[in-house]
Amino acid sequence: MNAEAPARGLDGFLKSLNCDRGHGWALLGACLLLALPELGGEGVRNALSYDRNALLAGQWWRVLTAHFVHLDAQHALLNGLGVVLMWALFARDYSPLRWLALYLFSALTISAGLWFLDPEIEWYVGASGALHGVMTAGTLAHLRRRDLDGWILAAFIIAKLAYEQLAGSMPFSGSAHTVVDAHLYGAVGGLTLALFLRSNREPQ
Questions:
Q1: Where do the H-state alpha helices sit in the chain?
Q2: Distances (CA, A) of 117 to 110, 121, 129
Q3: Which end of the chain is more exposed for a tag (fewer CB within 10 A), N or C?
Q4: 54-92, pLDDT tens digit by residue?
C-alpha cells in the first residue's frame, strides 16, 4: 500500500474546504479571534460591546469590537461554525486583506445602521451580521464568474433576509435576542464594498 495515497487524499480534502496549508492556519486564527474574548467573561463583553450610552461618551472602538464578542460561549461557537462555512465556500475568492476589509466594513455598516436607523437598540454583540457581509461578497464573486452556486446562494440570501424582515429571526437561529436588522445591514455593507473590489479568479 502506498503510504502517500492517504496523505494526498487528506491534502485534497483539506484543499476542497480551503483549509490547506496557510489557509488552514488563517481559518484557525479567525476562529480564535472570535473565541478568545470569551475567556475574559462579562467584563470583556461589556467593554467591547456596541453600547449606545458608551458610544455617546466617546468610546468609539465599540463600533468595531462589538462584532468580535458574543453573548456567551454557545453564541461564539455558532458564529465560529459560520466562519468555517464561509471559509469553505469563499476563502479563495479574495485575498486575506480584502476579506478583512470586507468584514470590518460590514461591521461598521451594521454599527452605523443600528445607530441611525435603530436607535431603540442600545446594546449589541456578535459576528453574524458581519458574516452576512462576507456571504454577500463571496456570492457576488461567484455571480461574476457565472457559477451556478452563485445564483443559489443569492436566492438563499434574499429569501433569508426577506423572511427575517417580515417574520423575525429564523426558526433555527436558537436565540430570542437575534437582531435581524444587523444581518441586513451587514449584507448591504459587504455587497457595497465588494462592488468595488475585483475578486481572485474573476474573468478579465
A1: 4-16, 21-35, 41-48, 52-56, 62-65, 73-90, 96-117, 128-144, 148-167, 180-194
A2: 10, 9, 15
A3: C
A4: 999 999 999 999 999 999 999 999 999 999 999 999 999
Which set of grid coordinates corresponds to residue 112?
452605523
Contact (CB, 8 A) for 144 and 204: no
Amino acid letter, 17: L
What DSSP designation does 17 have? Answer: T
Cell representation of residue 104: 470590518
Residue whose entry in the numeric block shows the C-alpha cell 464561509: 86
Q: How far apart are CA 179 and CA 192, in angstroms?
A: 21
Q: Do residues 184 and 106 lie in contact, with contact meaning Cβ atoms separated by under 8 Å?
A: no
Angle, helices 180-194 vs 148-167, to 10°: value is: 150
Query: Would you say 113 and 66 are in contact if contact means Cβ atoms under 8 Å apart?
Result: no
CA distance 183 to 194: 16
- The x, y and z cell numbers of residue 201, run together, are 479568479
What secondary structure letter does DSSP report for 198? P
| Mean pLDDT for all residues in the chain | 91
Greatest extent of the chain over all pairs of C-alpha atoms, in Å: 67
Residue 192 to residue 106: CA distance in whole angstroms:
9
Q: pTM, whole model, 2 decimals? A: 0.91
Between CA 186 and CA 123 the distance in angstroms is 17
| β partners of residue 51 | 123
Terminal Cα-to-Cα distance of the chain (whole angstroms): 44
